[in-house]
């Protein structure tokens, strides 16, 4: 691309931008004096909470900049029944049955918590961050310019990044921090290379995490999950036809089930497109396939039948990989037959997972074999195969990333992802029904059914965060006077402030009726809350946070943790994997 073409484009944009901005500013000017006085609206209702936001007799003005009109309204204060008041903000928490690895919060401060509350320690909180994220937001003008450059010169977003022209022009996603060695998938955007539908789909899939629970773009946690795998159909042709109540048109497959060959010429691309869709969505109705493939549905239907006649799909819809942690309900926790061994990979991350290094791990019985519920929560290792940190990512970039990114360090230290088989008999639910109610310590958690001794009530889940982040989040804990941090070891804690199960509502008692146990399940630490004795429906679940919690709460010196894993979970560098497993399984909080 010649520099002069770029300069022309930039100048065009600049003159347009000047004119546009001048007009926009003009439109913001005050309405002229000789306008009719603004109409007065009926009094507007303002809901009054504990702190009135408005006073009787106040007015406010609504200015419509576009139509240059103004209206004025009196404020009327309405008292509402306290039970209709909004929930306290601390209750906002995303429900999640599993832990999410966060590591550290980003260095730029994404937003300022309690910004309208002068009692919050803003200075202390600010000091935890390097910059304000909003100071570094991409300029929308530059984004517009970069979009135009891409379309005019047929460039990908990555080309723009690489060229760095004009200065400051970057793609929208560029401000997201990618792990070292990664590049934007758009760099290889198939739409520029004329790749076929299969390749395009594979590449597009790189933009998304394969774990449907994961909301992270460029997810590095679940990257070892397989990309796209063919799925076998689960319904017959007849069922498909019966599920379509009426024909979608004169070319509908319902009306034209003849054996005549498909007349229209289908290009190789068309055929591949249909096959790719059928691989991923074999139960799709021909009428839907017709829309995707832009072909009459009877043709699609016929080719669909021909395709499955050749490809002979397996009868049942089987997942392409054995179920893993992510695929399981907590109720299916175990009995596990966890299989771990070592992959001795030269290309792996430096300092390989020490859980995996001494494989194979000998099978060991669960600690309390008679106690079914407890047993279900326990993982034990046996046997052969390894998936442990296997080089199964998405190409070289992903592998390079593994060696460097902090997330991978967590995985190296704590996770030895392993194949697990779930015993089909393990069907009984592991969790007890619970509900959250008001208590003298804020909210608390109560049993909705009787529980036996040593039953798993529920899991305590949250974000897995590193110590520096527990410290920065501690300002919020202090301000709220509520903490949801459960320490796993000196480096990592589970924080259920923003994400987790109802386990976060469990209050402390020095004579508890439950305890929290950490189990190493399929390579991940999971915290289960178990009953210490038989409990009646309606009992509040309580565990002992340990002495340091309230000490630190009072001193304000240290991050307070509702649970602290002692000793064994502070994993020494040379811990042997088998003792590690045992210790993890036995360690109580
Ligand atoms: C994990 S949360 C428990 C749920 C909390 N009650 C709520 O409303 O969200 C821990 C917080 O609950 C409060 N808490 C729990 N047990 C307590 C106790 N025995 N005495 C005083 N405060 C307690 C403290 O504020 C503590 O920081």
UniProtKB/TrEMBL annotation:
Chain intervals with Polar residues compositional bias: 24-33
Residues annotated as domain SET: 432-546
GO annotations of cellular component type: nucleus
Database matches in SUPFAM superfamilies: SET domain
InterPro entries, per database record: EZH1/2-like (IPR045318), SET_dom (IPR001214), SET_dom_sf (IPR046341)
Domain of life: Eukaryota
GO BP terms in the entry: heterochromatin formation
Region (Disordered): 24-57, 554-589
Pfam families in alphabetical order: SET (PF00856)
Keyword Repeat: no
Gene3D superfamilies the record matches: SET domain (2.170.270.10)
GO MF entries: chromatin binding; histone H3K27 methyltransferase activity
Compositionally biased intervals (Basic and acidic residues): 47-57
This protein's UniProt keywords: Transcription, Transcription regulation
Protein name, entry field: SET domain-containing protein
Origin species: Coprinopsis cinerea (strain Okayama-7 / 130 / ATCC MYA-4618 / FGSC 9003)
């Amino acid at each position: 691309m010649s520099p002069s073409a770029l300069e022309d484009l930039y100048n065009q944009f600049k003159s347009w931008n000047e004119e546009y901005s001048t007009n926009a500013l003009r439109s913001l000017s005050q309405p002229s004096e000789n306008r009719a006085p603004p109409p007065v609206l009926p009094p507007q209702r303002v809901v009054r909470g504990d702190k009135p936001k408005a006073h009787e007799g106040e007015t406010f003005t609504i200015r419509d900049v576009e139509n240059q009109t103004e209206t004025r309204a009196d404020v009327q204060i309405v008292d509402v029944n306290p039970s209709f008041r909004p929930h306290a903000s601390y209750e906002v928490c995303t429900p999640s049955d599993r832990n999410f690895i966060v590591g550290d919060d980003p260095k730029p401060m994404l937003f300022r918590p309690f910004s309208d509350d002068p009692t919050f320690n803003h200075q202390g909180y600010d000091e935890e961050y390097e910059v304000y994220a909003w100071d570094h937001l991409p300029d929308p003008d530059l984004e517009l310019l970069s979009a135009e450059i891409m379309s005019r010169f047929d460039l990908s977003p990555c080309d723009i990044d690489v060229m760095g022209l004009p200065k400051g022009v970057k793609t929208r996603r560029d401000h997201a921090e990618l792990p070292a060695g990664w590049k934007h998938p758009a760099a290889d955007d198939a739409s520029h290379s004329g790749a076929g539908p299969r390749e395009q789909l594979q590449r597009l899939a790189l933009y998304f995490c394969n774990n449907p629970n994961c909301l992270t773009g460029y997810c590095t946690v679940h990257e070892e999950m397989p990309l796209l795998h063919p799925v076998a159909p689960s319904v017959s042709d007849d069922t498909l036809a019966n599920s379509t109540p009426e024909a979608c048109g004169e070319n509908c497959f319902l009306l034209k089930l003849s054996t005549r060959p498909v007349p229209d010429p289908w290009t190789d691309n068309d055929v591949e497109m249909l096959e790719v869709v059928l691989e991923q969505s074999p139960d799709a109705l021909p009428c839907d396939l017709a829309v995707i493939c832009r072909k009459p549905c009877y043709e699609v239907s016929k080719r669909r039948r021909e395709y499955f006649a050749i490809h002979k799909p397996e009868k049942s819809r089987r997942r392409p990989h054995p179920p893993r942690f992510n695929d399981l309900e907590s109720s299916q926790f175990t009995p596990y037959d966890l299989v771990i061994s070592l992959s001795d990979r030269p290309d792996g991350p430096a300092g390989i997972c020490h859980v995996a290094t001494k494989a194979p791990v000998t099978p060991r019985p669960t600690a309390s074999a008679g106690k079914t519920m407890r047993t279900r929560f326990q993982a034990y290792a046996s046997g052969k195969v390894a998936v442990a940190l296997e080089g199964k990512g998405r190409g070289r970039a992903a592998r390079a990333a593994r060696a460097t990114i902090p997330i991978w360090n967590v995985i190296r230290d704590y996770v030895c992802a392993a194949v697990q088989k779930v015993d089909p008999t393990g069907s009984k639910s592991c969790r007890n029904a619970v509900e959250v109610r008001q208590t003298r310590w804020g909210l608390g958690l109560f049993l909705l059914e009787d529980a036996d001794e040593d039953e798993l009530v529920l899991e305590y889940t949250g974000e897995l965060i590193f110590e520096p982040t527990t410290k920065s989040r501690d300002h919020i804990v202090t301000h709220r006077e509520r903490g949801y941090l459960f320490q796993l070891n000196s480096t990592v804690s589970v924080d259920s402030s923003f994400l987790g199960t109802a386990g976060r509502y469990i209050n402390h008692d020095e004579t508890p009726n439950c305890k929290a146990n950490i189990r190493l399940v399929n390579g991940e630490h999971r915290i289960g809350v178990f009953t210490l004795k038989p409990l009646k429906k309606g009992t509040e679940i309580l565990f002992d946070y340990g002495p340091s919690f309230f000490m630190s709460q009072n001193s304000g010196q240290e991050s307070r943790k509702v649970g602290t894993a002692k000793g064994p979970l502070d994993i020494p560098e040379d811990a042997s994997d088998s003792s590690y497993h045992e210790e993890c399984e036995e360690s109580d909080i």
